[in-house]
Amino acid sequence: MAHENCNHGPGEHHHGHGHDHGHSHGPPGGPGGPPMDIQVDPAMQLLLDSLPHTPKPFALAEMPIPNTQPPITQVMVVCLEHKSPACEQCNVNFTGLNYMHQFLRAAPPEAIPPPPNVQPPPQRAEQIKAAKEAGNTAFKAGNIPVAVQNYSRSADMALSRPPWELAAVSRDETAIALCNRSAAFALAGAWANALADAEAVIALKRPWTKGHFRRARALVGLNRIEEARDAIVDGLQFEPDDKELNNFLQEVDVKLAEQDKA
Ligand SMILES: [Zn+2]
User: Fold this and answer.
1) CA of 55 to the centre of ligand 1 (A)
2) Model pLDDT for residues 100-149, shown as the tens digit of each residue
3) Which of 43, 158, 214, 240 gives 20 to 30 Å between its CA and that of 127?
4) Helix residue ranges, H only, the chain
5) Which residues neighbour ligand 1 (ion) by CB within 5 Å?
6) How far apart are CA 125 and CA 172, in angstroms?
7) pLDDT tens-digit map of 222-255
8) Side-chain half-sphere exposure of 82, counting CA atoms within 13 A
9) Contact 39, 46 (CB under 8 A)
10) C-alpha 98 – ligand 1 centre gap (Å)
């Protein structure tokens, strides 16, 4: 029982995380990317149209970027008459706009929030999963330090997903990594660490029975048998037929009966 870890993530059977799509989602609208297809919100459009503004005539011009060798040119917004990005005669200054444009083009995709209906690039999910699997390999080989290290890496990557990506995905990945790490700590007899990770898993995914199982397991390790029983009962509220929890409940009840006899 102690050799088991938590490979099936919460909700893993219900849905993939979008990385089984046939087509890849690069940075939308990025350099060379396909044009963005964004639905215009009529209310937002109305609001924008209602803002007072004075249209300024402008042109687009291919301008060299200073101090680039070989010279790089970029499309810039310039005044219509003099083709200058900052023109006193026309009383326009497009420097800020051009700077922002240059920044958006140069910035790595993860620095720019994608439009709301776009799936995150699949690479991150793959790296998070690869770290988890490296952890599992070490776990099976009984190499606990390396297992813990890889599960930690997997959790760190999941937690450092950009804030605009689906929080549920990050929560699932983090919960799986910490659940596995709890199992690794348990195998090493590091029960306090195993308990801390199990509690984090429950905080992330309360309905997932694995978290409750790991918590009960750690509490038994700490010889807190009655609390372990409560933890199992907590978990069974979410899935009364869970085999792992029901088996462990029997095991714990035997321990409690022995305690009473002593
Ligand atoms: Zn001008």
Assistant:
1) 15
2) 888 887 777 667 777 767 777 788 899 999 999 999 999 999 999 999 99
3) 214
4) 42-50, 95-106, 122-140, 144-159, 167-187, 191-204, 209-221, 225-238, 243-261
5) 79, 81-82, 87, 89-90
6) 11
7) 999 999 999 999 999 999 999 999 999 999 999 9
8) 11
9) no
10) 16
